[in-house]
């Protein structure tokens, strides 16, 4: 018996729609596996990077190696060495890496304890003042405080103060750096400092 497919109903021609969908997904999965086997080095690298990023954000954000890689524009250095611990007192001009503990961690939980790479611009006893959102340390300009974040949340400039003992004013060199000029970031406690940083390039 010869059957003309054009005379069959939509369900009969070509088989069950559910079965066709399953076969299509099976073929797609098999093609993906073949592609992954051919390019296993690339896939391994991508999964390793994503795995490290997941650990960094959700498990243990603390740097563990003496080399720091900076992917932000906050400071003009991509690679630096980290001297863990505080073998000597920190001074104005030193680069440091510290764990974030500012108010912004309530708006952005992923910031909690994340390492930040900045330069010390204010030390205990220095006076911080603000004029029309321009921030000064001992009368020297250290940055303009923008009004909103990248996702339009409000930002406030740091409150005028004399930096107390055990705190530092930190600054990034980029105009958009999220640093002590903002109340949501604030001053950095000495116990937040992971180590001194020596920029390489």
User: What percentage of the residues does DSSP assign to strands (E)?
Assistant: 25-35%
Low-confidence runs:
none
The biggest sheet amounts to:
7 strands, antiparallel
Distance between the termini: 79 Å
Keywords:
about 200 residues; Umud Fragment, subunit A; 2 domains; four-stranded antiparallel β-sheet; elongated
How would you sum up this structure in a few lines?
With 201 residues, the protein is α+β, with helices and mostly antiparallel strands.
How are the secondary structure elements laid out?
Elements: H1 17-38, H2 40-59, E1 67-69, E2 79-84, E3 95-99, E4 115-122, E5 127-131, E6 134-137, E7 140-144, E8 161-162, E9 167-171, E10 188-189, E11 193-199
Antiparallel strand pairs: 1-2, 2-11, 3-4, 3-11, 4-9, 5-6, 5-8, 6-7, 9-10
Structure, described:
This protein is α+β, with helices and mostly antiparallel strands. The chain has two domains: 5-38; 67-199, Umud Fragment, subunit A (Ribbon). Helices cover 21% and strands 26% of the residues. The chain is built from two helices and eleven strands; from the N terminus they run ααβββββββββββ. The chain has a seven-stranded antiparallel beta sheet with strand order 1-2-11-3-4-9-10, with no helix packed on it. The protein is elongated and about 80 Å long. The N and C termini lie far apart (79 Å).
């Amino acid at each position: 018996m010869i059957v003309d497919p054009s005379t069959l109903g939509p369900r009969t021609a070509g088989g069950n729609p559910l079965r066709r969908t399953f076969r299509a997904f099976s073929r797609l999965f098999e093609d993906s596996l073949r592609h992954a086997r051919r390019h296993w080095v690339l896939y391994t690298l991508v999964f390793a990077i994503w795995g490290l990023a997941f650990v960094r954000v959700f498990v243990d954000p603390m740097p563990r190696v003496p080399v720091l890689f900076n992917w932000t524009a906050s400071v003009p250095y991509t690679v630096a060495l980290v001297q863990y611990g505080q073998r000597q007192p920190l001074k104005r001009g030193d680069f440091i890496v510290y764990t974030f503990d500012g108010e912004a961690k309530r708006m952005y939980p992923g910031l909690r304890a994340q390492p930040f790479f900045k330069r010390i611009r204010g030390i205990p006893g220095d006076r911080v003042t603000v004029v029309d959102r321009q921030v000064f340390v001992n009368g020297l300009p250290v940055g303009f405080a923008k009004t909103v974040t990248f996702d339009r949340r409000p930002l406030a400039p740091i409150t005028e103060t004399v930096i107390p003992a055990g705190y530092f004013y930190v600054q990034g060199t980029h105009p958009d750096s999220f640093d002590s000029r903002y109340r949501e970031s604030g001053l950095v406690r000495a116990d937040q400092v992971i180590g001194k940083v020596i920029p390489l390039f």
